Amino acid sequence: MSKVLTLGYEYEHDYHLMAINSTLDDYRLAYYLNKQLTIHLERQANNIDFTDKNCSFTWYNYDCNQTFTTWALVANKHVFTTKNTERPTLFAEESKISYLISEKKKVDYFLKIFGDFTAERLIAILEKIKSIKGVVTSYTLNPQTLKSKDFLIF
After folding, report:
1. How does pLDDT run across 27-82, given as a tens digit for each residue?
2. Quick count: other Cβ atoms within 10 Å of Cβ 126?
3. CATH of 16-152, one of 3.30.310, 3.40.1350, 2.60.40, 2.30.30
């Protein structure tokens, strides 16, 4: 008689998460974040891909060896077009949006920061992000409150 043993593992989210609403493209936002926060976010060669949803999300990363912090900027939205092959018409292409974190549809980007930061330092970072022209707002999020927080493991 065989027994099945299942192990439950809950990933500990030990990072700070900031939501950014912006009209900027991802490369422009990364450039302005680099300028304002004196970091060096670089576009990663591999996107965060979901083959079942047929979408991918761009992300930028920076590892600071002096302060032992890691910064990651990831897009929350992916816009793609699909063709309606059933009835070919002039407007056969449809635009669809897929979300990395579907319960935060109003968020355009997430900034994920690993490292020890005081509350004052996080507020200063948020204020610098808000000062970027093209950023509507930014605020902190608690990763534990997100249903699909496991999509932020990268």
Report:
1. 999 999 999 999 999 998 887 766 666 677 888 999 999 989 999 999 988 776 66
2. 17
3. 3.30.310
